[in-house]
Amino acid sequence: MTLQKTTFQKTVLTLFLVLLLSSCSSPASQCKQFADVTQHYQPLREEFEASIKSAQVKASGAKNLKDVQAAATDYNAAVNATTGKLDDMTQDLSGLNITDSQLNEYRESYVTALTGSKASLSTASEAMQLVIDVKTEDALRDVFNTYQTKGNRAYDDILRLDTKESAIVKQVNDYCAQSFK
Fold first, then answer.
1. Crossing angle of the two packed helices 27-40 and 101-133, in degrees rounded to 10
2. Which of 55, 62, 115, 161 could be stapled to 67 by a disulfide with Cβ–Cβ 3.0 to 4.6 Å?
3. In this predicted model, which residue has the larger pLDDT, 16 or 141?
4. pLDDT digits (tens, 9 = 90+) for 152-173
5. Buried/exposed code over 24-49 (b: 16+ C-beta within 10 A; e: otherwise)
6. DSSP letter, residue 42
């Protein structure tokens, strides 16, 4: 009798675990995991934009090289904080157990877009570092074209990647809406 009870308990426990694991790996559950990660990092964009705007305001009121460099330093601090959070987000997304092939494809595309955004932000930071490193206003004039070219390229790349990221999010939302039906 105890052997049957033990076997029954093991069978019930096994069925419970299978149900639990299958519910965690359903498309709807995987969509929720994906959404939880992206929503967790939603404030990232607003925080970055606020920090950049603050640096721009500081730069617009600059009276000398030291003021310009202080604004550039603030800009780079905002970029560094954002790239660190992009790394965290990429790791969190990559760590999700997504077995749904379509959702996994969206995740990989999203991670690629985030990685591209991080690279573009790093390029923008390198451009701003040119401003931070100059010793004189004449030296600033000398590096201005390089700074502007690198900065504009990075900005264009960021806009392109933001558009790509938005398209991926829309695709995920559409796909996940179908999964919940």
1. 10
2. 62
3. 141
4. 999 999 899 989 999 999 999 9
5. eeebebbbebbeebbeebeebeeebe
6. T
The set of residues, in sequence order, having a beta carbon less than 8 Å from that of 125 and lying 6+ positions away, is 75, 76, 79, 80, 83
Exposed, middle or buried by CB within 10 Å (0-12, 13-18, 19+), for 1? exposed
Rounded-to-integer distance, Cα 98 and Cα 33, Å:
9
- Give mean pLDDT, residues 74-101: 94
Asked if residue 61 lies in contact with residue 52, where contact means CB atoms within 8 angstroms, the answer is no
| pLDDT at 17 exceeding the cut of 50 | no
104: Cα within 13 Å, side-chain hemisphere: 9
Q: Which of 119, 143, 114 is nearest to 130 (CA)?
A: 143
pLDDT at residue 79, rounded to an integer? 94
Instruction: Quote the CA–CA distance of 18 and 10 in Å, as a whole number.
Output: 12
* Contact partners, residue 59, CB within 8 Å, separation at least 6: 67, 68, 71, 72, 75
Least confident of 4-8, 77-81, 89-93: 4-8
Verdict on whether the full-model pTM lies above 0.85? no
Q: Tokens 């573009």 identify what position?
A: 120
